[in-house]
Amino acid sequence: MANKPASTQPSALLVPLFAVLGLCGLAAYGKADDAHTAAEWAHCGDLPLTWQIYSSAYGALTFGILTLVLFWWLARRARRRGAWVGHGWQGKLALVAIALDIPLIALQLFVIWYLYQPAPGGPISCV
After folding, report:
1. pLDDT digits (tens, 9 = 90+) for 62-92
2. What is the pLDDT of residue 61?
3. Ranges of H-type helices in 1-125
4. DSSP state for residue 9 in the 8-state scheme
5. For residue 16, which of 24, 97, 111, 125 is within the disulfide window of CB 3.0 to 4.6 Å?
6. Residue 9 CB: number of other CB atoms within 10 A?
7. How far is CA 97 from CA 37, 56, 62, 74, 77, in A?
8. Pick from 83, 85, 61: which is nearest to 12 by CA?
9. Among positive and negative, which fits the CA dihedral 57, 58, 63, 66?
């Protein structure tokens, strides 16, 4: 097994898995934010952000960064062995995942930034 190129190792499949988990974290953030907005309107006032909003936003960013770190580690390991990280279908899938993950990280960073901004419409009132 030590003679295999680095990209044929099962660890190359963790790159797309982490990218998908980062995308799922953004979807969970969207659901939690929608539920929070509905609760605010039902309450007719502002409510503090829930732990689900924070954990999904930071979890998505964590998986996005882990995707980059794991791909960098795999590419470095492949280069030391004289191989290319994109060799084999696992490596090609990892390359596609990293290409999609880079703009996804920008969106995840925007979501984190948006968490700490004041409400754009001001406080909610049902008057």
Report:
1. 999 999 999 999 999 888 888 888 888 888 8
2. 97
3. 14-43, 51-80, 88-115
4. S
5. 97
6. 17
7. 32, 20, 15, 13, 18
8. 85
9. positive
- For the cut 50, the answer to whether the pLDDT of residue 7 exceeds it is no
Structure tokens at 16: 């797309």
Non-local CB neighbours of 20 within 8 Å, separated by 6+ positions = 97
Closest CA relative to residue 105, chosen from 48, 47, 22 = 22
DSSP letter for 3, please.
T
In the structure encoding, which two tokens stand for residue 76, read together? 């470095």
CA distance 14 to 9: 10
Alpha carbon 98 to chain centroid, angstroms: 11
Between the alpha carbon of residue 54 and those of residues 16, 33, 50, the distances in Å are 23, 10, 7
> Which tokens hold the place of 118?
């004041």
pLDDT band at 3 (very low <50, low <70, confident <90, very high): low
Write down the residue that tokens 């190359």 correspond to. 12
